[in-house]
Amino acid sequence: xxxxxxHASHEQFAPDHLLRLAVLARDAGFGALSASDHFHPWSEAQxxxxxxxxxxxxxxxxxxxxxxxxxxxxGRYHPAVIAQAAATLCVLFPERFWLAVxxxxxxxxxxxxxxxxxxxxxxAMLRESVEIMRALWRGEEVSHRxxxxxxxxRLYSLPASPPPVFCxxxxxxxxxxxxxxxxGLVTVSGERAAMRARIEAFRDAAGSARPVxxxxxxxxxxxxxxxxxxxxLAHAQWRTNLLDSADAAELAMPAxxxxxxxxxxxxxxxxxxxxxxxxGRHAAWLAEDLRMxxxxxxxxxxxxxxxxxxxxxGGTVLGQLAQ
Length: 323
What we know:
One of its GO terms (molecular function) is oxidoreductase activity, acting on paired donors, with incorporation or reduction of molecular oxygen. The protein is α/β, with parallel strands linked by helices.
C-alpha cells in the first residue's frame, strides 16, 4: 500500500510550529514526512527559513515516521557534510531516512559568493556528489577532484545501511537521466500527462522496481468558505512558484520572485495547485495518482491553514484512500 505523507515547508512555517504540525499529522494518520531545505523563502509573505537538518533530528525523534528531505548537496553545502548528516540520521533512526537531491536554485545556493553554475555544470556536480556520498557511506577514504573537490574524507560513524538517494526531477529529461543512477524519483504534481511522462521516463531508464514519490501541491479551505477561499490561500503563499523551473533556478532573492510573479492572477493558480474545498475531489485526485503506480504521496497544502488541512484530510481523505 502506498504511503501518504505530510510535507513540511520550511520556507513557509517556523521550525517549532512545523514540529508541532508534524506530530499532529502523525496523530491524524499520515504515515510519513518530507521536508524542504531552504536558506531563503520564495517570497517575503512566506517569510521563514529554518535549518532543515537541525529540524530533522527533532522531528524524527518526536514523530517517529519515515522521513526525507529534498536538498542540493553542493553549493552552500558540501557532499561530505551532507553524507555525514545523513549517516548520523540513519544511525539514530535506522531504515527511516531517505534523501532526495536536486541541482538547486540560486535562491538558496548563491550565498557563498561563488558564481552560479549552468544547469549542465550543476548536473555534473550533482552526479559527482552522489558518488562521493555513496563512497563515504561505504566507509572509504575519498579524495576527488572534478566538478566537486574532496580531500581525504572518511566517515567513522556509519549506519548499518545507507539512505536511499532519490533524484528530485521537474522535467522529463531530468527524470530519464536520474533513472541511470538514482535509487528513486521524487517529482511534483501537475498536469496529468506531464506527470506520467516524467514517471515513465524514469522507469524506462531505471526499471519498475525503484520507487516514485510525488509531492502533491494542493490548496484546501473549509467547504463553507468554498473554492475561492482555497484559491486565495494559494495565491497569497504560492504565486511565486508558478515560474518556469529553469527560470526560477536563476533568481537570487525573494524580491526577484515577487517581481516576476506580480502578474500572476487567482485564476492562474490552478495551473500548479490542486484547488478545492471539496474533500471528495481531493481524494479522487490522489486516487488517480495512486493508479499511476506511485509509491508515496506527500501532501503539501500551500496555504497557511495547516492544522485545518491536517484534521480534515486525516478525518476523511486518508480513510477513503485506504479503502
